[in-house]
Write a structure and sequence with these properties.
five-stranded parallel β-sheet; 467 residues; elongated; 27% strand; 12 helices; single chain; eight-stranded mixed β-sheet; binds flavin-adenine dinucleotide
Length: 467
């Protein structure tokens, strides 16, 4: 373990200038932690003002313990407290499992609430620390200058900014990605889409229908219906006052994964016919819904530019499937780990700092991503009458008990030393051994006809999931 001091706010100015592009969860977390670790940080955000976009967002305890450390627990629990149980049903409505959640979990509380509300708490916290957030600043070009040890970004007005490090936290449609990896990585359809909605329980009749009032009368609720190649989640929050649903189903449409593409309620109801009537009763009360096509990227070869001064974090580096319930949490872990790494590297060793950061994050993020794939496959393959705790939402200790800040302090020296002594290599992935039914990896073919996939044993069938 490292000899570094435990995490502390009392850290001197490192003289490292950091520009963060994007004020989402990754960008805000990185900026706040950079400030705490003594770097000089500024955020450039393309939108002129925050809008109430999105719906339910979950932060796992691996991320919430960081936010609690910043002093935000009371505020966040006040707007995004979590249910104590997850009720899992088969698609006909029989109970498969009740997953008990006792808090604190590994010493922290998960937050589940409206994305915009949770995001605003973090955004206001960053402002309260004096972090400059320049709204209406859209990055249009990146560069780095190895000789002078600088990187830069140009915005839409032509104005340029330079710094020791540019952190591109510009989301799933990242512009910086091409600069960092050297080619255009177009997302592919994942084969799935989600219908999602968020609405007021009382106003839309959830509380007065005997088929749906269970979501409101018992406080916060989480119910999942699994099997038949889809899963439906109905969640109430704010003590049962607001409802959201998610229906994840097969869909190969090749359109872009926009958060605001409208869907049709009748299409959702069509998918739910022949299922537990409670699902259709919930959906029929929603005033509108979003049709979100899930896109995936192959794992990027690297998240760090050639000279180590432009770094991709959050969705820009590694978009997540919602079933992992980890997209925003891993984005926060990225930002925190990067701030610590830069602090330990120092201004003269920024490249070593960013490369060490990448080594710390690459495998962990991939393992968290794969958990989402295995959960989705397990849920979609469930049969009527199935039961047991294997259907619970996984909360493994390696994921949830993790403290990104403490881990970065503990792991930095060893990894940095290896890079110095053995040279930097592009990150590579090991197998995900902890996923249920995981057998191994396959790769075959040649040239452009390559096939890569993961092998799983699922109900006595060997399935191949193409990656
Ligand atoms: C509008 C919206 C709604 C969402 N709703 C949900 C939800 O309801 N539930 C859920 O689980 N997840 C939601 N997500 C996704 C979730 O927030 C992210 O997956 C996760 O938090 C990772 O965050 P991120 O900071 O990496 O990316 P994002 O949250 O996507 O943030 C990226 C930020 O970068 C800014 N940006 C992009 N390009 C540029 C540029 N060129 N210059 C400057 N700034 C730029 C964007 O405006 C945005 O603020 C939503 C994302 C968005 C953008």
């Amino acid at each position: 373990m490292a000899e570094h001091p435990p995490p502390s706010d009392d850290i001197r100015d490192t003289g490292i200038d950091v520009i963060v592009v994007g004020a989402g969860f990754a960008g805000i977390a990185c900026a706040v932690e950079c400030k705490r670790k003594g770097h000089r940080v500024m955020i450039l955000e393309k939108v002129h003002e925050l809008k109430q976009l999105g719906d339910m967002l979950s932060l796992g305890v691996n991320a919430s313990r960081i936010l609690a450390r910043w002093g935000l627990h009371e505020k966040l629990w006040g707007v995004a407290d979590s249910a104590g149980e997850i009720h899992i049903h088969d698609y006909l409505g029989d109970l498969v499992q009740v997953q008990k959640m006792s808090y604190p979990l590994f010493g922290a509380f998960p937050y589940n609430g409206h994305r915009a509300v949770i995001h605003e708490v973090l955004f206001e916290h960053a402002k309260s620390l004096g972090i400059e957030i320049r709204m209406g600043h859209q990055a249009v070009e990146y560069w780095e200058d190895e000789a002078n040890g600088k990187a830069g970004v140009k915005i839409q007005t032509g104005e340029t900014f330079d710094a020791d490090v540019i952190v591109a936290a510009d989301g799933v449609k990242s512009l910086a990605r091409k600069f960092v990896i050297g080619y255009c990585d177009n997302p592919k359809p994942s084969g799935y889409a989600i219908y999602r909605a968020w609405f007021d329980a009382e106003e839309h009749g959830i509380t007065t229908d005997p088929l749906t009032d269970f979501l409101s009368v018992h406080g916060n609720q989480v119910h999942a219906w699994i099997g038949g190649d889809m899963h439906f989640l109905a969640i109430s929050s704010q003590g049962g006052k607001t409802i959201c649903f998610f229906l994840t189903h097969k869909d190969n449409a090749a359109v872009d994964g926009d958060w605001s593409s409208p869907g049709k309620i009748e299409d959702v109801l069509d998918l739910l016919k022949d299922r537990d009537p409670r699902c259709a009763a919930i959906v029929s009360k929603a005033p509108s819904c979003i049709d979100w096509k899930l896109l995936v990227h192959d794992p990027l070869p690297t998240w760090v530019s050639k000279s180590g001064r432009v770094v991709l974090i959050g969705d820009a580096a590694h978009p997540f499937l919602p079933t992992s319930v980890q997209g925003a949490s891993q984005a926060i872990e990225d930002g925190v780990t990067l701030a610590v790494s830069l602090n330990l590297a120092g201004k003269d060793n920024v490249r070593l700092g960013t490369r060490t950061w990448e080594c710390m994050r690459y495998q962990r993020v991939h393992d968290a991503q794969m958990l989402g794939v295995t959960t989705r496959n397990l849920w979609h393959g469930a049969k009527a009458g199935d039961s047991g705790n294997k259907f619970e939402l996984p909360m493994p200790e390696w994921l949830m008990a993790f403290d990104a800040e403490a881990h970065a302090y503990a792991a930095y020296d060893g990894i940095a030393r290896t890079i110095v002594e053995e040279g930097y290599r592009l990150p590579s992935l090991e197998e995900v051994k902890e996923s249920p039914g995981y057998l191994g990896r396959i790769a075959c073919g040649a040239g452009r006809a390559n096939l890569k996939g993961l092998l799983y044993l699922d109900e006595n069938l060997i399935r191949i999931y193409i990656t």
